[in-house]
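Assess the record.
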Amino acid sequence: MSQLSEHSNASPSRAELIAGLVSAMVNPLRSPIMRNPADDGLEYSDIYFPAIDGVRLDGWFIPGDSDKLIIANHPIWANRYGFPGHIAPYGDAWAASGNNIEVNFMPDYKHLHDAGYNILAYDLRNFGHSASGGGGAIGNGIREYRDVIGSLRYARSRSDLRGMKIGLLSRCCGMNATMVGMTKHPGDFEGVRAIVAPQPISLSSFYRTILGHMGMPDALPEVAEALRRVTSMDLKDMDMPQYAAAVDIPTLLLQVREDTLTMPADVQAIFDAIPAEKKELIWIEGTHRRFDGYNYLPNNPKPMLDWFERFMA
């Protein structure tokens, strides 16, 4: 993940490896939007709205035949379409872990639309077509929560959506941002009926895992210091169980059990910290690729559709 001169034959130093690891997560290359809902035969309109701090967010609205609305929040590196990991250079950093594959969320929207749902899908700040915010640094949810709340306020500002039942399809960083938002602005989540959340992640869990693969298991303090210098953010603030304690909405979590980019204990800790009476955790088996977890619901929509139907009927 380090960025070295093409003319250098030297092995990267420890400091260069750490700098590259931090940069890959907080200043990733923007990936293009490679598909749109029309590719799956869905009518849609382009929309834009402000996050609560004024950052412009771009998205799609896909109309459905019901009084129910799903707002979709995406992972780091991705955008409202998914992630073109099968195309260089976007998937290059993920090749070593086997995650240089395409993630395509269009089937998610098709499944939800066919079940009658209206859908609002948008790009978080610093991704897709949305504007930059926070100096362009990704916050693993602790800045992106402003976008999630902006999406809820936008939906409630529209006369055609204001009275709808709302569910959240919050993936990875999108779920992190949802949990941080519930901690900071719980009132904005009143009336949200259900959450489906593939693979929320604490950044320290990711870094510990990757540092272990790199043979530097003792380097987490150095990563934390490099992160602070680059982003002015603390690594400890990007750990998610502390925010999960605010989640009192029925929540379905999903996670690749053998994910080589994190630790199962992190997702278990997030799940355990959620106080909602109605919650479930589905472990995805038979793969070590994290990105298979993002493609799980597009290929296996029943858990998502059942959860939303159960709590949004």
Observations:
- The chain is about 35% helix and 20% strand.
